[in-house]
Amino acid sequence: MDIEEANREMWERAARDLYPLAGGAGGFLAQLLGQIEIVAAPEVTETAATDGVKIYSNPAWFRNLTQAQRVRVAAHEIGHVLLDHCSRLAGASDQKKANIACDCAVHDLVKNLGEPVSGEVQPRRLNLPDGKSAEWYMSHMSQPEPRKPKPEPGGGGKPQPGGDDRPAPTGQTPGSLAGDVIPRAATPVEQTQMAVKVAQAAEWSATRGKLPGNLQRIIDAALCPPRIDWRRPLRQWMQDLTRGPVTWRTPNRRYAGAGLYVRGRSTAHTLRELAIYQDTSGSMNAQMELCLSEISHICCAIPNVRVTVVPWDVRTYPGREYTARDMPIRAAAMTGGGGTSIACVFPDLADRRSGLAGAIIVTDGYFGPFPAGRPRVPVLVALTRATAPTLPAWCRSVQVHGPSQR
Predict the structure, then answer these.
(1) Cα→Cα distances 384→102, 218, 342, 381, Å
(2) Which of 44-48, 196-200, 231-235, 367-371 bottoms out in mean pLDDT, i.e. has the lowest?
(3) Is residue 338 pLDDT above 90, yes or no?
(4) What pLDDT sits at residue 325?
(5) Are 22 and 16 in contact (CB under 8 A)?
(6) Tens digits of per-residue pLDDT, 214-250?
(7) Which residues, including other chains, have CB under 8 Å from residue 142's CB and lie 6 or more apart?
(8) What is the share, in percent, of the chain residues with pLDDT greater than 90?
């Protein structure tokens, strides 16, 4: 048996042991792993690495792991593939820091699978929470790594002499998975092929039961087609709040040329107070920060605006007030985390001052039923996941998405 075949057999055995783990998550990851080419490449990696299309392995290192550790490594690498970390890392100026951030992001997906290997990056060791995106970890990691020269075009995917398409050596620390994400922008064809593989693995998993919520949201994001720019409907909704009431005092100019005197809207009205209800149930992601950033940008152009950010999960918590001088709006600290019920928002909304113009609820959509009855002010729900729940007819919504939703 040659090295390539022996390496493939070890990875296939790891995939088989991954199947029954973590309530269906292991099965999905094993199905997806079965569709990815595994390459024995000790000249590329000291341990294991991926460029988003293939997984590269050092057979000698992999052989010396326990079977439970092999399962963990298999889940870790396919997690990077699923989260598209290689493409997202391609433009990072600090590759080492970005690699650590990607490992933090994938940890929430694999922490209950197999046995950790030596040197595995875990968010808690950096005093950071689980369940965030790679971009979030990048922005919250203290003491950033020194800036390094940008990699040559193609990142880690530079071909080796001899015509092989294997990437250049990763430069990993021996025995550690740190640095296992090889920066490489996927082509449109590769993105389509990967979406098909994810869909096939998800279809198989659907017949075996419900997937964990964090994994299902990642799959939804991977299969979500591009949408219109969510900033436009958000901006339009906020602009509508600044429009005054219909009055005879301000004729509608559109019909004045025809000799018709039609009611128009008062120009004296402006947006004074806005409430933002931020879901802090523990399942939110970087899209929430994108949404708050855009709201801040809009509010900065509105004089004398006052914005109150109210955290909520199964109940509301004391909020923080912002004016235009306090922008940008910051996401509230995680409070509670014991489930989510959107019904708790509306009693708090009813108790707000009479000058409140509208409310924005930023949530991932896992929030239970809406209460009966329509609130006294317009409500916009900013959803941060790919599939939206059914919303009441009186409620507007936008689907928040950035360069990536994972």
Answers:
(1) 20, 12, 15, 10
(2) 231-235
(3) no
(4) 75
(5) no
(6) 788 788 777 764 445 666 777 778 777 766 555 556 6
(7) 126
(8) 17
Q: How many degrees, rounded to 5, is the angle at CA 135 between CA 341 and CA 117?
A: 95
8 A C-beta contact, residue 58 and residue 46: yes
> Residue 218: what are its φ and ψ, rounded to 5°?
-65, -45
CA distances from 305 to 46, 240, 271, 278 (A): 56, 15, 6, 19
Residue 324, burial from CB neighbour count under 10 angstroms (0-12, 13-18, 19+):
middle
Q: Is the dihedral of CA 301, 305, 309, 315 positive or negative?
A: negative
Pairwise CA distance, residues 194 & 173, whole Å: 29
CA–CA separation, 217 and 196 (whole Å): 17
pLDDT tens-digit series, residues 253-305: 665 666 666 555 554 455 678 888 988 765 555 556 666 776 777 677 666 77
Cis peptide before 328 (omega within 30 of 0): yes
pLDDT of residue 226: 46
The helix/strand/coil state of 34 is coil
Strands 379-383 and 356-363: parallel
For residues 106 and 72, is the Cβ–Cβ distance under 8 A? no
Kindly report the pTM of this predicted structure.
0.53
CA 325 – CA 329 distance, rounded (Å): 10
Chain CA centroid to CA 367, Å: 18
Q: What domains lie within the chain, and their CATH numbers?
A: 3-223 (no CATH), 231-243+270-399 (3.40.50)
Q: Determine contact, residues 105/132, Cβ cutoff 8 Å.
A: yes
The DSSP bridge pattern shows strands 246-251 and 263-265 to be antiparallel
Q: What tokens were used for 377?
A: 């002010």
| Number of helical (H) and strand (E) elements in the chain, helices listed first | 12, 11
pLDDT digits (tens, 9 = 90+) for 152-180: 444 444 334 334 566 656 555 555 666 78
Residue 42 is which amino acid? P
Q: How large is the average pLDDT for residues 113-129?
A: 89
